[in-house]
Amino acid sequence: MKKRAIFLDRDGVINKEPVEHDYVKNWGEMKILPEAKKALALIKQSGYLVVVITNQRGVARGLMREEDVHGMHKKLNEKLGGNIDAFYCCFHNVDENCECRKPKPGLVRMAAEELKIDVERSWVVGNSVADMECGLAAGTKVRLVETNGNIFQAVKQIVGDGKKGQRGVKSTRYGTKSVKERSPGK
Asked: Does the annotation count 161 as an active-site position?
């Protein structure tokens, strides 16, 4: 049987969104939002996979390296109790017209195939129209949350709905959990 997942955007949902046209380029700039750890723990306790899907264009612009992003994700997962099952990243620039950059559904589709996820029983949670378009194009339910807001309340509502069955790389060892870190097209 395929698994359910909650796909989460990173910046503005799990960690503080940087100022417009900037990026979280290193761990020192990563500010985890207060209710994120509690929200991810609830997702896991409810039987969902936690998959982070994130556009990281700063790599294509030369502001950071893929290795920097992978290192931040390793530490982020540790700080969040090891509750993230996988990170899927698009490192392409906007003009590359790749299939993985949100709002296109490539990251969700790749994760669904590799992790055996039932998209119809899964959710995309994000703080932008691009996140919502990505989820809808992939066939998930979607939930728009306030940028830098409290995702715990949204997660509580989602896991309640999920119980009703409504529709809605590179492997790296992180602590005791294996987390997939993917960058499509690389």
From this structure: no
